[in-house]
Every structure is written in structure tokens, then in C-alpha cells.
């Protein structure tokens, strides 16, 4: 089937994606290579389509309810979606919100002219004029190619126009071999599973396979529960902490052991539906709880595994999000780096949540896994870590965020005093022009607008504070001393390190003291005979 025919059938609503399919997920480089292959007549790989017999047509697709498709994509969703994306077409089986959440709007492919005058797919960082393949496709349909070529900076010669016309035609004439399969939906799933097994090049991740298995028992699982939950996490800027793998782990624990993972084809559909509803509820609950207590972005969640424990706890004990035990437990885990290099402690924490008879017993079991006494205090030296290469601020960032959120509303933006933390617009932004990643003294919680203002004055200088005019209470909440008049932008980084670090340590330690112990240390034993 030529790509031009794929486009025509897609626009006509002939295709859809089965409910158990993985979500569309491709990056721009992959899409670029696919279109480059099409333009060079490199084989694209076969699409496996299922044409159900009358009476066996599914009612709903992976992304929508009420499908009228006649052909169902068993294998090839990623390639079909990628081709449509490159041509500027949203797959009709997805709505705008779903397409945007999958990054479909970012998958444009550019074309350019090679040194020998051929129209080719442009390299990612290639210099010189370029034009989107989607614009070329539209221009070929509208017969406006000369104007587009001229506007894009290419010579609007007849040769150039013909070359780009031939380029678009080569892509549209490229063919996907089509394999048709008979049978019922169970056969379609079996084909999908085998095509995406670990022995194939494009294997499913384990969590994708396990969720797909469950979706064969309760069709709306992915479309109406898992995908929306992950989209909501992304809206909270916590999509790296709330992953599909964690969602799958939580759902699996909600099911009877004999109906989990590889045995999901035997799962009771009613139990899968109940688990889906519980997942949606506990995701919302966990997101709100983390936000309330200051963990409003992935970059300040140093221990993402806590998310899975909290999701399991809030599902098991629905009112556990109404008190501060979980926040105190999180603080102990973060302050002691208790999960770092200790996967068994994470597993034992989950066992404590699942094994306790009631909330009081669960609290006692979880508390027994952390060191007795108050959370580990930090020293000024702790706030001088080796510069981080990863995208989080480590445990120091988490502790600072937790501290800044308590009491709620005491930390306000330096530029907009009406904006209180925790608010997702307040993120750790640099106070100097050459900050060291992970060095907390160089960052504070503020909006991008406030950060830009501070940067325009060379960092946290006298002119910056004079422009922003923060109140003393705001400065204290940010552990920020007022800079001296003579402080230059080149000196800000060292000045912050020397003057702000001890204040940060003091404030975080006050918070750790207020958090207190989850369990008291044992009484010291007296010498025998006393």
C-alpha cells in the first residue's frame, strides 16, 4: 500500500488502533529516518492489518470510543503515525489533546537541497534553507510549490520546483507491504504480542505488555484510565516520577496474585475495571499530596520510588492523605537517602503497606524501616555536593522544597509577593550567572520572570534587590541575605556560597526537627547492677 493510499484511508476513517496497543511514542530523529528511507526507496517494513468479519468488529479503539474503522492496525501503529505526523496530519483516531500529549506536534521533518541539487531530508543541525515536508505536501496538493520554495529561501527555478515535487512524490509512492490476518480479536492480540516479543527488534517494554494483556480483559483501561493519569501527572510536571511502569506495578498489586502479569489473560474483567478506577483515584490523591508538600516538579523529587509507595498507601488507606505521616516518612527517606542503593528497603516499605492490618499498624511497620530518632541533620558540607549531571537537584533540592512548603504559604516569589509556594510556577532558578548544578546556594524558588529579572542585573546584586523590593519576610523565607552595594556579578556565586549556605542549613534543620522521629530510639541500657 503506497503512503498516498495510507493517507487517503486514514483521512477516510478506515484505520483504527486496537485497545490493547501501546501508546504512540516516537522521537523526531526516528521519524526523520523513516521519511528519509521512504524518499530513498529503502523498504519500510510490513503493516499487519486485521479486517474483522461481520459481527466481530470492535466497538472502541485505543484512543476513542465509537469507532467506524474497517481495518485495525495490529502492527505498524508507530510507522503509520510517524508518516502522518511528518505530512502534517493528525491521525484521525486520536484527538488534539492525545496527539499533543504524545508529542505528535513536534515530529515535523525538514527537507533541503543537497550540494548537487537534489531535494533530500535535512539533517537535524544542518545549516541553510530548509522547508517542512508537511508544507511541501500541502503545497503539492494546492499546487503552490513555487511560492513555498521561494518563501523558504531556495531559488524558485523550474528545476528546484520539479526537484521538490519529485521528492514529495517519492515519499507518497513509497510502499508499506501489507499483511492481512483473519480470525478474531484474540488472534489479533496474539499476533501483536508475538510481533513485539523480546526476541524481536521492536519489543514491548515489560510494563507495556502487561498493561496490554489487562486491556484485553477491560478495553478502556489504557484509553480512559492509564493515559489520562499519566497526562495529569505531566500537567503537575511529575511525568518522570509517575511513569507507565509505576502505574502498571500499582495496578498489578491491586489484582489477585493468580491474575497478575503473565496470567492477566485469565483476569476477571470486573476486577481489572475496579483496579483501573482505583488507579485513577490514587494517582490524583498522590499528585495532590506531593504538590501540597512542595514536591511540585520532577527536578526536586530525588527519590521517585516514594511515589509508588505513596500510591499504594493512599489506595490501601484512602484517608492517609489527610495527615502528615506520609510527608514525615518521605522526609526521613530523603534525608537519609534510604532508598539509594537499597532496593530491598523499597520492597519492604511496600510490604509494610500491603501487610499491615490497619493504618496504625502500617505506620508502625513503615516507621520500623527508618532509623530511630529525628531525620538526619544536614551540615554545610552536605550542601556542597559534587556538581550533578542528572536532571534533579538531589536530596538537598527535595529537602529544600519540603522545607519551603512548611508552613504552607510562607515562601513567596521574590518578584510577585502574591505567588506562594507550593506553586508549580515557582521552580529552582539560578541566582548567579554561572551556577553549579546541585549547589543549592546558587538557586532559589522563583518564577521564570523573576529569574530573568535577576539575571538582567548580573545575579543577586544590590541592583536586583533594589528592583524587586522583596520584604524582609520574603528574604528570610528564601534564606537570602541582602547583597552589599559593591558586590559585582562576578562575585555573586562565591558570595552566595559563603553567606547563604549556613542559613539554608539552619532552616532545613529546623524543618527536620519539626518533622521529628517516626519512632523513638531505644532507652540506653544501664550497666548491670544499677
TrEMBL record:
Pfam families cross-referenced by the UniProt entry: GmrSD_N (PF03235)
Domain of life: Bacteria
Record-annotated GmrSD restriction endonucleases N-terminal domain positions: 4-87
Name of the protein this chain belongs to: DUF262 domain-containing protein
